[in-house]
Amino acid sequence: MKGLKLRKIERLNSAVTFIGFGALEIGRAWGMGADTTVPDEAEACKVLNFALDSNINLIDTASAYHLSEERIGKFLKHRRKEYILASKCGEHNSSAGTFYDFSYGAVKKSIDTSLKLLKTDVIDIMQIHFGPDPKDVLDKGETIGAMKDAVKEGKVRFLGASIDGALAERCIKSGDFDVMQMGYNMFYRDNESNIQLASERGIGVFIRSGLGNGLFTQRVVGSMDALNGRDRMRINKILEIIGNDPKKLTALALRFLYDNEGVSSVLLGTKRTGHIEENFRLLEMNFDLKLLSAVDNACIAE
Prior knowledge:
The chain has 302 residues and is an alpha/beta fold. The chain has one domain (14-213, 259-270): Alpha-Beta Barrel (TIM Barrel), CATH 3.20.20. The chain is built from 11 helices and 12 strands. The mean pLDDT is 96.
């Protein structure tokens, strides 16, 4: 099964399943369309365990995902050895929302809090959750300094950064990071060279927004008015090519990511077990090469 194909990350000396679980939606209101509510504890427990039962071996969360870390710790503590755990620091959770603080002390405290909430002795991958001025964060160096000290203390195993563009390239070339989390999908391809560079250097690549935050799912059909003009035109063109079947739209988006061998794992978030099953199934869908070419041309159309 393509979704469970293991892709090795040299810097980690381990492999991750192509489909990883993005744990944003189980803890924080998010998504396209009307259903952005946070699931209750029973549903969160069900989807987290279903992800592991499906043999997904990567779970990605963050301090800023509100209830996410706490729920992972509560419901998956007994299964900790079954998955690679990635979290993020820099954007912090609070009762009033989230806020940014990239100072050494704040990041060290955040990592300790994450360990406590996740009910684990070590977080496999800690990533910088950049905010409005990522260059300043990198220039000051306090955040990476705190993260490196957490590695020395045995609290974190590997380091990552969630960032795009020229600063992602800077992070890759710095040698400080073992994993890069970047935005990439059929419409947004700016990180293609960064994906290749990271792969060449043995750095893992986790993809966020691989389904365009709902753009490449059936939810887009009822949200066309919210799209910008170019995206609306491209989506309509692709739907026309594939016979107006939005499930094929998702299948094509997954196939696009799968065909890039530099991608280690695509982080797919959901609060429903059915979506996990469907993503596995859709990734197995076969397409004629002419159709793939026609869709690709529609994706890059001006």
